[in-house]
Inverse folding.
């Protein structure tokens, strides 16, 4: 069987008892695959409907697996944060800076982030002022142009998760959208503004 063990996240075995136990203990799986077994579930059918039954029964197991992965990655971030290797960054400005440098290995974004990256331009045609701002539904009004005092207009908007994910893609950084349903995940949102990164190498702070 040609399986890239790195891409395989886990194996669930389903079947009637005691067949599935016999299978698991029978040494039928390559030892690398054996490590990936995350559970065995009771399924009463042995035909295709058993497969659907297994997927149904597996939902909870898979959610657990996902949560475990979030926990592992968040603990790695927290460890980097206190380590003198300096391979952690947080806050939008710092993380954006590192993304542009191509220094981000893993981008951590909270699933509760509700921000928009907004492109703003001056409405005065003879003025070239433009900038990007990160805004929320409670941000102050746009105000007037810093250069000429004319009014400003929004010319483009993108959800911040998609904006930062695009930057991450450019340098091959992995993106993880982290649930707030566990302690470190809630911390990412509350203490780090929902935006953090594990870095490939140490960079200078901005
Ligand atoms: Zn202007």
């Amino acid at each position: 069987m040609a399986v890239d063990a790195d891409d395989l996240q886990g194996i669930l075995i389903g079947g009637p008892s005691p067949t599935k136990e016999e299978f698991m203990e029978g040494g039928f799986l390559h030892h690398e695959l054996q490590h990936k077994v995350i559970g065995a579930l009771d399924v009463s059918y042995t035909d295709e409907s058993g497969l659907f039954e297994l997927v149904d029964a597996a939902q909870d197991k898979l959610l657990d697996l996902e949560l475990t992965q979030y926990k592992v990655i968040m603990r790695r971030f927290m460890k980097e944060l206190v380590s003198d290797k300096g391979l952690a960054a947080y806050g939008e400005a710092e993380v954006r800076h590192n993304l542009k440098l191509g220094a981000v290995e893993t981008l951590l974004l909270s699933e509760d982030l509700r921000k928009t990256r907004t492109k703003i331009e001056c409405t005065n045609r003879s003025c070239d002022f433009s900038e990007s701002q990160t805004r929320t539904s409670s941000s102050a009004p746009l105000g007037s142009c810093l250069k000429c005092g004319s009014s400003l207009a929004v010319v483009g908007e993108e959800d911040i998760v998609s904006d930062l994910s695009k930057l991450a893609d450019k340098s091959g950084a992995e993106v993880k959208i982290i649930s707030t349903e566990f302690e470190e995940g809630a911390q990412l949102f509350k203490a780090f503004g929902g935006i953090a990164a594990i870095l490939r190498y140490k960079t200078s702070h901005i």
Notes: The pocket of zinc ion is lined by residues 122, 124, 127, 129, 145, 147-148, 150 (CB under 6 Å). The chain has six helices and nine strands. The longest helix spans residues 48-82.
